[in-house]
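#struct-pred
JK: can someone run the complex with S-adenosylmethionine? inputs below
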Amino acid sequence: MVRDTLSRPLGSLRISVTDRCNLRCRYCMPEQEYVWLPKQSILTFEEIARLARVFVALGVTKLRLTGGEPLLRHDLPALSAMLAQIPGVQDLAMTTNGLLLAKQADALRRAGLRRVTVSLDTLRPERMRELARSDRHADVLAGIAAARAAGFAPLKLNTVVIRGANDDELADLIEFARGQGSEVRFIEYMDVGGATGWSAEQVVSQREMLDGLSRRYGPIVPVSSADDPAAPAERFRLPDGTTFGIIASTTAPFCRSCDRSRLTADGTWLLCLYAERGVDLRESLRSGASDEELREVVTQAWTARADRGAEERLSVAQRGALYKIDALRADPRREMHTRGG
Ligand code: SAM
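RT: done, structure tokens with the ligand placed:
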């Protein structure tokens, strides 16, 4: 197993299959216009599967499909099947906004996708219009129902919590998730690329979330994460046994246990969500590098890795959005929707 300078293993790879999205969430894609990755630069399924095999050979056991919106990529079940067949892949998951999930849940399940996380920031359709410029809330709920029916259990729900936007819905979302037999994970609003409207005041911290929920439910206890120390969410249990998670990447980052890296749809490999640039694996791939040469490129970069992006952001005085829009336009690989979250 390959380890970096902080002894972190190369354990999980998030694969963005497209930078396109059918939502315009205010914390991720708030602008009117975007610079897209050139079409010819987008990796084919064969190229993605080949790179995935290289990573798995070096110790990666978890793959997660993401985007942009992964379900916008044509025939995602075909890619899922190719990835599910790689020996050594223990977990194959997808993060989606759910809009197109109802139609594809069954096929994805049959193809070997094991887990699905659906982003759900609000239970109120009119709020989704404000938060994501979409009136397709019912499609998300249909996607969640279809995923359950297809056997994706337990289903996870992701909610980015923003002060004044949806922070009054935490208990409602917990109840909704419980009713669905799923678990919600509240994500602190992060100052990543794309979040050009980010400000510290809009972040609802893990502490604040727990205080508010304790007032409503009574004592909340942490659930041990000993079985998955690299998991980004800390899990908690309400007095009635209901569990939920919080991903405190902004106020309590977990860089020391981060085993994740990210492959953009054009084959740029990012060793940290906050990294300014990545390693161009497409160039190596398309110029005829052997598997051994690709493994060497990955090994060299990972063993030199010292990134602690989210922790370093903590020490920035007067913290604001990570990038201004011009910097994002100059390199769309800095965008959250290109990196895959
Ligand atoms: N389109 C898919 C979706 O909506 O789940 C996958 C891509 S999206 C970039 C992946 C995750 O990143 C989502 O759960 C989203 O809520 C999260 N995300 C995006 N911008 C964020 C931000 N500024 N802070 C925290 N989480 C963010």
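RT: quick notes.
The pocket of S-adenosylmethionine is lined by residues 21, 27-28, 66-67, 69, 95-97, 119, 158, 160, 187, 189-190, 192, 195, 336-337, 340-341 (CB under 6 Å).
The mean pLDDT is 97.
JK: thanks, will look after standup
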